[in-house]
UniProtKB/TrEMBL annotation:
<protein>
    <submittedName>
        <fullName>XRE family transcriptional regulator</fullName>
    </submittedName>
</protein>
<dbReference type="InterPro" id="IPR000644">
    <property type="entry name" value="CBS_dom"/>
</dbReference>
<dbReference type="InterPro" id="IPR046342">
    <property type="entry name" value="CBS_dom_sf"/>
</dbReference>
<keyword id="KW-0129">CBS domain</keyword>
<dbReference type="Pfam" id="PF00571">
    <property type="entry name" value="CBS"/>
</dbReference>
<feature type="domain" description="CBS">
    <location>
        <begin position="54"/>
        <end position="109"/>
    </location>
</feature>
<dbReference type="InterPro" id="IPR051257">
    <property type="entry name" value="Diverse_CBS-Domain"/>
</dbReference>
């Protein structure tokens, strides 16, 4: 995950989503192992199976959700990644970064339209060059 800058991995079994492994679960495992090491020897982390570390009941999104619904779902459940599922089939995993980027792009577009509507609004490049 670290080598490829991947924040989450859907865990599949026989074509079905059975869990989600994110950096959060990995960090929690490492913290738990650190505490356990203080009390005595523990099996190496490499011997653990994903099944024992993953979130077995991830919150999921549907392809029909709009961005505001998706953002609310992620915030409410404190999730940075959500699998997008339809009829038991995984379509994608959406990240909080993806949602933030979509909101930013939408707001930027709306701002440009409003400034265009006003008509006399200074061009952003000209304003930036005077600061």
């Amino acid at each position: 995950m670290s080598d490829r800058d991947i924040g989450s991995l859907p865990v599949m079994s026989e074509g079905q989503l059975v869990g989600l492994l994110t950096f959060r679960e990995v960090i929690n495992l490492l913290a738990q192992r650190q505490r356990e090491l203080r009390r005595g020897p523990t099996p190496p982390v490499a011997e653990l199976q994903v099944l024992h570390v993953m979130n077995p009941e991830p919150v999921v999104a549907s392809p029909e959700m709009d961005v505001s619904e998706l953002r609310a779902l992620m915030v409410t459940h404190h999730q940075r990644y959500l699998p997008v599922m339809e009829n038991g089939r995984l379509h994608a995993v959406v990240s909080f970064h993806d949602v933030a980027k979509a909101v930013h792009e939408e707001q930027s577009f709306e701002n440009r339209m409003l400034k265009s509507y006003i008509g006399d609004w200074p061009v952003e490049e000209a304003v930036a060059s005077h600061t």
